[in-house]
TrEMBL record, chains A, B:
HAMAP family: Asp_tRNA_synth_type2
Taxon lineage: Bacteria, Candidatus Collieribacteriota
Amino acids binding ATP: E360, G408, P409, S410, R411
Reported function: Aspartyl-tRNA synthetase with relaxed tRNA specificity since it is able to aspartylate not only its cognate tRNA(Asp) but also tRNA(Asn). Reaction proceeds in two steps: L-aspartate is first activated by ATP to form Asp-AMP and then transferred to the acceptor end of tRNA(Asp/Asn).
The keyword Ion transport is annotated on this UniProt entry: no
Full protein name: Aspartate--tRNA(Asp/Asn) ligase
BP GO annotations: aspartyl-tRNA aminoacylation
UniProt region (Aspartate), positions on chain: 190-193
InterPro entries, sorted: Aa-tRNA-synt_II, aa-tRNA-synth_II, aa-tRNA-synth_II/BPL/LPL, Asp-tRNA_synthase_2, Asp/Asn-tRNA-synth_IIb, NA-bd_OB-fold, NA-bd_OB_tRNA
GO molecular function list: aspartate-tRNA ligase activity; aspartate-tRNA(Asn) ligase activity; ATP binding; RNA binding
Domain Aminoacyl-transfer RNA synthetases class-II family profile: 135-437
Species for this entry: Candidatus Collierbacteria bacterium GW2011_GWA2_42_17
Length: 437, 437
């Protein structure tokens, strides 16, 4: 007998169906038992009556969250949740749960359980509709990203995560014992996606893990997370890269809204915004001026603090009704050596960050592709041939002008759904103190 | 002026166009110069005449593989390659290559250069049409995989690559210095995709890097490579997993054939096969019998050698005209502890490998989801709670029956295009002696 998903029961009213899933609740009232069954598509009330002796006996000592297969008849019942219930004929227990659950597996229990304990029992935590929905949305977001990029003619690369030298600055990099030597975990595909430009691939993207030995414990950092990266040749300037990102974000939010908008509204009480293009773009210098006018003190001359990012996003939301803002043209002190600088403003980079409701979700720039200038800029930042010689080589035998960006899809998810902590927007969070499960 | 891709020039005959790309060849004959320009879509002959003094002066000392932008008029010319050439008006040099290339950047030079030197200069090696095509095909394969899985309702996970303990056996695992302790690089998403089954995700897939501290130097191994993984709940047996893989491979080969079939034929002299379903399925025991009959000696009682894999593939190709064969039901000695065993044949696992023209491209199985049995099987293989306790926990509070597979897309590419060495089917190969560039 073919399995029916719970979401499809209504189409099969009055028929005998086979369901499989987890026992969410089990309530006995004299000669009748109500079992709420949950699969990946939803929940349904099922009914086992005492006269069905085998089935009734089976569920007597059935623990919550056990996995069962039920066969029964689906019936309309206006008293049941969603107006439908299943009168059970047979019950087969596929996997019996231990009787005492370490954390509650229901939405109500969510707020009562400490996040760290929830992460210890992540697989139980992910059984909640709310948490599974996060990864359904993420799956759709990935697909839209892959389809958008591939359809635009981008080549997908899978760049190595094991490197001979620390990728960018040498700071916050994990060291690996690699046979008789050391290797380092990639902090971003930056160098290798630029290599693809030197290879003439012209447009590339990558979805992959990035590693940061960042000893911070904030709600928006992790030591390992998924990155979306892209790089494009023959651009005029960094604004072209921003144009591409706008089209990606519009595609993602539109599709997520169309497919999961209702569920997201019901579960997260959040309307997924489909932003209008172009997004507001404000230079770093202007941002500092605006914040000064609002009484927010500048603490870092070449960067923005979290408070400043929130402040400027608040300003943009009020002034333009827009959740997104590109901050452009950062001072060179706050940017890596490979960001291109304006010919007529050598202390300013052709760079940008994208903020979404106060959170930085992307960093991008036009890159310096001219070998001599790039080498000078590297030297100026204290980098030598010994560490970045292989990278500098990419620019010796012809390299098109190019630019690109690195974005954090877990932060997209946070902002799209209104989740405060990156630990919840990550399948399995990794931090200074967390390498398990 | 908008840029025209070289593949689109024919649509713009007689018009003034702007082209950008690499200088592939440059031949001067008295008052006329022929420059073959290459972009990611192809090559075209361009002509610079002496009376165009600025342009002619610019190209005098232009080194091969420099990057230029040309403006000129496209014209039909039956003598030119593809019947079209561009009469150049202006030349702008965007990036000048050093004059002596370390390796030749043409197909002819391919066979003359040692592979190791080519990998040292991988970005120049990738400029060849043949090598760029590999990654265009790979991009399409990735997209088909993502679309097929997502459209079937699979959830994409991004499981962590940093783990607290060595993932499966403790052998061939890379150790990472993780703040004040050790972490290990994931050898496969095995445990975490099974966790998704315990989380009730039911169907998941992942594309991501896997790491193997494998000290071998063969043409089919790497220390880091991309994996395709999937896992499915509520299966009847491992044959259901094979059915899914067949549908994926048919989808990939069909799409690759439709989009790149002609190019692959021209460049690799290979017809991409679209295999018929079902693929032949032969048990391990039968394979040993067949090989015995062919005089191929069994060297490993619980596994197949490379020669045996080639032998059985040859047999299947001759007998069924099929490039693929599933070998099923391996003895328990050759399989990990988490493979389910037949109730009535406790020394045989419900497992399979997929061979494509003699190369193992996938390993899969139904998994043991019953906690007590799983724990016994782990103990039998010498594994303890200390190393796999977190994993065993996944099975304590209800876990559906499930199975899945791990496949190597770089090996798919090798077999699809007829490439002998995994180093060429990988964007940047990583091996015992290679961490650069």
């Amino acid at each position: 007998m073919e399995r029916t998903y719970i979401k499809d029961i209504k189409k099969n009213t009055g028929q005998k169906i086979l369901l499989s899933g987890f026992v969410q609740t089990l309530r006995k009232q004299g000669g009748i038992a109500f079992l709420i069954l949950r699969d990946v598509t939803g929940t349904v009330q099922t009914v086992i009556i005492k006269s069905n002796t085998d089935a009734f006996a089976t569920i007597q000592d059935l623990s919550l969250e056990s996995v069962v297969t039920l066969v029964g008849e689906s019936k309309e019942n206006s008293q049941a949740p969603n107006g439908i219930e299943v009168l059970v004929e047979t019950v087969e227990v596929l996997s019996k749960a231990e009787p005492e659950l370490p954390i509650p597996v229901d939405e109500k229990g969510e707020s009562e359980t400490n996040l760290d304990t929830r992460l210890d029992w992540r697989y139980l935590d992910l059984r909640k509709e709310r948490n599974a929905l996060i990864f359904k949305v993420w799956t759709l977001m990935d697909q839209v990203f892959v389809d958008t990029m591939t359809d635009k003619g981008f080549i997908q690369i899978h760049s190595p995560k094991l490197m001979n030298t620390a990728s960018e600055s040498g700071a916050e990099v994990f060291e690996v014992n690699y046979f008789d030597r050391k290797a380092y975990l990639s902090q971003s595909p930056q160098f290798y996606k630029q290599m693809a430009m030197a290879a003439g691939f012209e447009k590339v993207f990558e979805i992959g893990p990035v590693f940061r030995a960042d000893p911070s414990f904030t709600s928006r950092h992790a030591t390992e997370f998924t990155g979306y990266d892209l790089e494009v040749s023959f651009i005029k300037d960094h604004h072209e890269v921003m144009d591409i990102e706008e089209s990606i974000i519009v595609a993602i939010t539109s599709k997520v809204n169309a497919v999961y908008g209702k569920e997201i509204k019901a579960v997260f009480n959040r309307e997924v915004p489909i932003p209008t293009s172009p997004f507001p773009r404000i230079t770093f210098a202007e941002v500092k001026e605006i914040l000064k006018g609002k009484g927010i003190k500048s603490e870092k001359p070449a960067d923005l603090t979290g408070d400043e990012e929130k402040g400027i996003s608040q300003y943009v939301l009020e002034k333009y009704g827009h959740e997104f803002v590109f901050i452009t043209d950062y001072p060179i002190e706050g940017r890596p050596f490979y960001h291109m600088r304006y010919a007529d403003k050598p202390d300013t980079t052709m760079s940008f960050d994208l903020l979404w409701n106060g959170l930085e979700v992307t960093t991008g720039a036009q890159r310096e592709h001219r070998y001599d200038i790039l080498k000078n800029q590297a030297t100026e930042k204290g980098l030598t041939d010994a560490t970045i010689g292989d990278y500098l080589n990419f620019f010796r035998y012809g390299c098109p002008p190019h630019g690109g960006l690195g974005a954090g899809p877990s932060r997209f998810i946070m902002k799209m759904l209104g989740i405060d902590n990156i630990r919840e927007a990550t399948y399995l969070y990794r931090g200074v103190k967390r390498l398990t499960p």
